[in-house]
Structures are given as structure tokens and as C-alpha cells.
Amino acid sequence: MKITIIGAGPIGCYAGYLLAKSGHNVSIYERKKEIGLPIQCTGLLTADFDQFGFDKSSFLVNTFSEIEINSPKQQLILKGKEYLVCRKKFDNYLANLALKAGAKIFFNSSFLRREKENQIIVTENGEEKILSPEVVIAADGPLSGVAKAYDFYDLKRKHYYGIQAVVRGNFNPQRYQTYFGKETCPDLFAWIVPESKDIARVGLATTKNPRFYFDKFMLGKDFSVMEMQAGTIPLYHPKQKMVRDNCYLLGDASGYVKATTLGGIIPGMKQAQVLVDCIDNKKDYGIELKKLRKRMNLHLRLRRVMNKFSDKDWDCVVKLLGQEKVREVFEKHTRENPFPLVMKTLLKEPRFLKFVKYLF
Ligand SMILES: Cc1cc2nc3c(=O)[nH]c(=O)nc-3n(C[C@H](O)[C@H](O)[C@H](O)COP(=O)(O)OP(=O)(O)OC[C@H]3O[C@@H](n4cnc5c(N)ncnc54)[C@H](O)[C@@H]3O)c2cc1C
Predict the structure, then answer these.
(1) Whose CA is nearest to atom 18 of ligand 1?
(2) How far is the CA of 252 from the centre of ligand 1 (A)?
């Protein structure tokens, strides 16, 4: 099939690679001049990343063995393997996989508008070009112009705004840190993610006033800022349509981001695998996404519960999580699939049920 992908981010490139490998005629259009810049991401990935079988040597920055969780008055250290990648190098790795599999990538090329039925207009180095692909994939990020042109965004969508600094300081490179609490970051958490013993990515994301909370978080910390980064992150919407006419939504354009942590890379890549299977085998994308959608819905429910936590609740949660019997669950399962985490945690510690009231 003749397939046009808009957006050479990690998810568009990964889908391009899988589709080209399957024998499709794939063209990827990217509005920027190069892949992966500016960086607008921390690049933290759970151990589920191993499932993709990539050679990490060109893009891996650090591997963690511990996660520190801080609430206003409690602290907990969990064991667990996680990866930190350089987004510029990772995105280029995926773009090269796509190119080697036979996909073409056009730079400086923007999606402009949708024309009659299956035609779309892109600009290539400033010149308009008419394309008639059999399939269009919108992988153009959280504010997708393609999704707008195909009327996907008729729902009230919510976004987070992430702000991050790359800083110099003193860090334990084996461990990254998270900070929860109403005063720290009201509807997510702040993070300190070391690249090495003297460089870290420090940031947070909120739906409102990210700069205010970021500046507050940085106060009194002995860091020197090397670089600032910022970006938009979509909040998953359970009613988001995924396919309309010949156009499919993918990655951030579809809101496939875990609402608990705002990690979108692994969900988007899993979603790309489903999409490619649907295109190859003429399956219904909306139906085949059911399993992933259940996970995303549970992440969203957990986010709604967590958004109602007081600082006292956060202290209570961290204390309960710190018990050996609960800690074991979190050390065995990654957060990609929240079902075993939630079920097993509730079985081991029924006192977590007191937070169910926040669902209503
Ligand atoms: C501060 C911050 C920290 C984050 N940290 C993490 C993390 O630690 N782990 C994690 O998993 N996720 C994280 N995320 C989320 C993650 O960055 C996204 O989920 C991921 O980048 C989604 O990839 P994508 O390919 O769908 O979209 P994008 O990466 O946004 O790529 C979209 C591409 O489309 C291009 N494009 C846009 N419009 C057009 C157009 N009209 N024509 C042509 N091309 C176009 C863009 O230039 C871009 O290259 C973070 C996000 C932010 C903002």
C-alpha cells in the first residue's frame, strides 16, 4: 500500500520502519530540518522497552536500578531497572531503521491540508505537493494538524505542559527521584533524572502554571542550568476516535500517553505495532486497540484519583507502598500495565481501598 506518515517523531519512524519492513511503500513527511531536535522529553523508559529488541548502544544514556519516591514527609526507594535515552539519538536510530527498511523521509515538509477524498497537500521545501496515499497516518504530535484536518479533535482535549532543565550538580547515577505533593506539582510530580553523577534532567509537568512550580522546585537546589526544554503532552481521552476515512491516529496525536506518568513512547510504539497488524491484515484498528485502551483507561482513572490526593494522602500512600509485601509487587511489575499493579496491591494491602472514594 502507498502510505503517508506525517511526523518523523519516534512513533512515526517506528511505524514507518514496521510498515516498510512489511513491504509497503512508505513516505514520512517531517516539518523540521532534522530528526529529534529540539529535545522536549526526559527519555525515561520502563524495562518493557526490552520487548522491542533494539540495539541500545547508540542512544542509551543511563540505566537505573532504583527509583526514589518522595511525598512531603515520606520517602521510599524501590528497586527496578529503567532506561534513560537521548531522544535525539533514539529518534535518529528509529529513522535509520525506517530508511534501511525502504521508507523515504522528506524533511522541511509539512502537512498543510486535506483536499478531496484521499488527497492531501504537503509543502516540500516551500512548494505545495498533492499526494494521493491509500493510507494517511497522523503521527504529528500532541497538537496534530492532520487530526484537526480530519475532524478527529471534536472532543474537549486536555494538555499538560512539561518544563525541564538539564543541570549540573551532584547525583547518584543509579537512582532517579520523583516528588509528589499538592505544593510541589499539583496534578503530576516533579523529577530528577541523572544522566551521570554530575548531570541530570530536572522537571515537572502540570496543566497550569508549570513555570511557577518549576521555579519553586528549583529553589535552594545546588544546580547550574545548562539548557531549558519545554513541551506539550496530551491527556488521554477515552472517547478519542482512532480512524476516520483513510486516516489513522498514532502516538501523541492520538493521546496515547499514560495519564499516571505522561510517558508516551512505549504506549505509542505498542500502538504502532497494533496499527501495522491492522493494515497488514485488514483488521479494525479501533477494535484491535481494545486491550491497550483498557490500560490507558485505568491510567486515567488512577490519575483522577491521584489528582484528589492531599499531601497527607501522599504520605499515607508512600508509607503503605514501603511495606515489603507491597514493594514486592512494584518491583515485579512495570507501570506500563497497571492492572496487575492495582489488583495485587489491593490484595496485599486493603487499606489502599480508602482512596477509591476519590473515583466518585
Ligand atoms: C517535558 C516532557 C518530558 C517527557 N518525558 C517522557 C519520558 O520520560 N518518557 C516517555 O515515554 N515520554 C515522555 N514524554 C512524552 C514523549 O515525549 C511523547 O509521548 C513522544 O515524543 C511522542 O512521540 P510522537 O512521535 O507521537 O510525537 P512527537 O515526538 O511530538 O513527534 C511528532 C513529529 O511530527 C512533526 N510534525 C508536527 N506537525 C507536523 C506537520 N504539520 N507536518 C510534518 N511534520 C509535523 C514534529 O516536528 C515532530 O517531529 C515527555 C514529554 C515532555 C513534553
Answers:
(1) 264
(2) 6
Please name the residues in contact with 45: beta carbons below 8 A apart, sequence gap of 6 or more: 82, 83, 84, 85, 263, 265, 266
Q: What pTM was estimated for this model as a whole?
A: 0.97
CA of 344 to the centre of ligand 1 (A): 32
Fold of 44-86+158-234: D-Amino Acid Oxidase; Chain A, domain 2 (3.30.9)
- What's the pLDDT score for residue 274? 98
Sort 241 into a burial class: Cβ within 10 Å, 0-12 / 13-18 / 19+. middle
Q: What is the pLDDT of residue 116?
A: 83
340 Cα to the center of ligand 1, angstroms = 28
Convert 310-347 to b/e letters by CB count within 10 Å (16 or more is b). Answer: eeebbbbbbbbbeeeebbebbeebbbbbbeebbebbee
Tell how far the Cα of 141 is from the centroid of ligand 1, in angstroms. 5
What whole-number distance in Å separates Cα of residue 305 and Cα of residue 318? 15
For position 124, what pLDDT does the model report?
87
Any residues with Cβ below 6 Å from ligand 1, and which? 6-12, 29-32, 40-45, 110-111, 139-141, 145, 162, 164, 203, 231, 233, 251-252, 257, 262-266, 268
Rg (alpha carbons) of the chain, rounded to whole number:
21
Question: Where in the chain are the domains?
Answer: 2-36+87-157+237-300, 44-86+158-234, 308-359
Q: Please, are residues 163 and 211 in contact by the beta-carbon 8 Å criterion?
A: yes
Q: Which residue's C-alpha comes closest to atom 4 of ligand 1?
A: 41
113: how many CB neighbours lie within 10 A of its CB? 13
Closest CA relative to residue 314, chosen from 155, 183, 215:
183
Residue 266 in contact with residue 256, Cβ under 8 Å? no
Cα(212) to centroid of ligand 1, in Å?
23
Q: Would you state the CATH architecture of domain 2-36+87-157+237-300?
A: 3-Layer(bba) Sandwich (3.50)
Nearest atom of ligand 1 to the alpha carbon of 13: 25
Residues of the chain with pLDDT under 70: none
**Helix and strand numbers, DSSP H then E, in the chain:** 10, 17
